[in-house]
Amino acid sequence: MKENKTSWLGVLATEEEVKQNGLKESNCVVNGAGNLQFYLRVISEIPNQEPENKYVVCFQNKFTGEGIVDNSKLEGKQRAEFYRKQLETCLFRFEYIDDNISEKYKCKIAENIFGNQEKERYHQIDKFITIPLITSENSSFENFEQLDKELEAGKGLFEVAGYQKSEASAIPYLIFYDENTKDDNGGYYVTNGRDKGIPVGQKLCKHFVRSEASHSIVFIDEKTHRTILKNLNPDFRRAKKQQKCEWNFIKHFEQTANGSGLYYTVKDLINFHTAVKSSPLVILSGLSGTGKSQLVWCYAKALGLEKESLKMIPVRPNWSDDSDLIGFVDSMHSVYRPDDAGFVNTLIEASKAENQDKLYLICFDEMNLARVEHYFSQFLSILEMPEQNRFLKLYAKEYETRLYNVDKYPSSVKIGNNLRFIGTVNMDESTFHFSDKVLDRANVIQLDLVPYTEWRVGEGKKAEPEQTEPGQTENEVWSYKKYGELVKELDLEKDILSAREREFLWKVHTTLNGCSKTLGVGPRILKQIAKYLINLPKTESEEAISRREGFDIQFVQRVLTKVRGQKEQLYDIFDENVKTSLPKLFEEYSDISDFEKSKKMLEVKKREIENYGYTL
Hints:
The chain is an alpha/beta fold. It has four domains: 5-123, no CATH class; 128-232, no CATH class; 245-484, Rossmann fold, CATH 3.40.50; 499-615, no CATH class. Helices cover 34% and strands 17% of the residues. The protein has 22 helices and 24 strands. The strands form six sheets. Strands 4, 8, 9, 10, 11, 12 and 13 form a seven-stranded mixed beta sheet that branches. Strands 1, 2, 3, 5, 6 and 7 form a six-stranded antiparallel beta sheet that branches. The radius of gyration is 33 Å and the shape is elongated. Residues 101-110 and 460-473 have low confidence and may be disordered.
């Protein structure tokens, strides 16, 4: 450091540390002069500089410890023990003095600087980092903006901090403290001299330890230090901005839904949003009249999409193959006849170069009035392919030279990522159940109603979504590029679930597959669950979905939707007396999720088996 008087932090050394280093027989003793003597372990570090001694001796007669009492009526070990118990949860600040006369490092002052509630937290910290502190008092800068301009002009951290140039590499960043700041940042700002400096925020700066001896340093615990380094990273800051933007969108989506008379929980809306982001196909299931189609309209409205960007396709019961959905070649009149609902027209519009940055939602209303695997057969294969290979074949290429409207309807259409597919379904006697081929590719969301007693009829959400960018309004049209920034693509090297999550799903697979070879958890399901989890909106709000909750939700939507069959075939899956039953596995792997939703759905399926002899 630049000065010969340097502050350090320490905690009372343990008995084992004292003995192992041959310092004394105990970490607190009465010495020959009748004074209490104790040993501290240094826990602060100056980058590229460490004390010669990790352990230093302190004396009670040179130490005024706040709230620490020496009971001189006690003798010997009892007196030392009484004193030691007061010291062992304290954090101490002290100095090394290099005066070229006495020992190079000598502890002259030690003081207890925390109240009882904070002592234990700081005693558990292994290391503090010593960081340069700039204030308007100890520098020529009146505020942080002036400092930032100096750094932008090419002045280095070592210069503004008063260091030698050779010490520059030892400074990861510096802190500026503005005594006149009254905002929520606590007056602390951080900069590394390369990127734009940022406010620290109350949550982090409340952990800072200021030095009494040296007003030009601040002590930062290692966890907070790592957080600051992340915050200084432009990529991390960009991700944080996107997280904030996404959460503001979710709150706007909630307002839009409430304003349309829909009463779903925030977590239901987050689940729907995350599924749309991460899945090729999302299916909304629930009672008739619960607002499934309206929810899709609200999602489009919250995204600010124009009418032509949302296409509602009413499915007809007589649809039997994909020509009912995409149209057919009329060879007699040499024209291509598209579908009546305008589905193909929307696909072609979305594929045009000028619309590549437009987002489109296509909703198949009452999707299971006809057999999905029949009329939607091409899409079930196409949506699994990489974007560059996703082409919907409208008709054989050989017809292109014969059709009058080939310029409007080419033989194939590219299905880009700017298209999102959603279906709504009712599960009753008038509909078809989904095949495994459909369930393997879809996130099936069972929507639950908020209890009527919690409805606030006539009351809307008053709070407006927080603006995250200049000029942003609640009616902003989301481009595909902006929406795509919220979507995280799966990295098979690091995102394919934790070891415990994969172990759980493999045991579930062997259990289900042991009952029926048509049941199980395939690799596709594993990847889809992983992609959903990495796309959960990150926020500290209690309304957010945690990874534990998300895993539970995905187990219901991706795995339990496929559990169906007869009692004789499946009953062992539900029997809590069977070691490999699902209830037993939920209990064994409670560290990865509480499985609350899974348990409820499993109970419903169990009652169906007991009452009807089968479950669907």
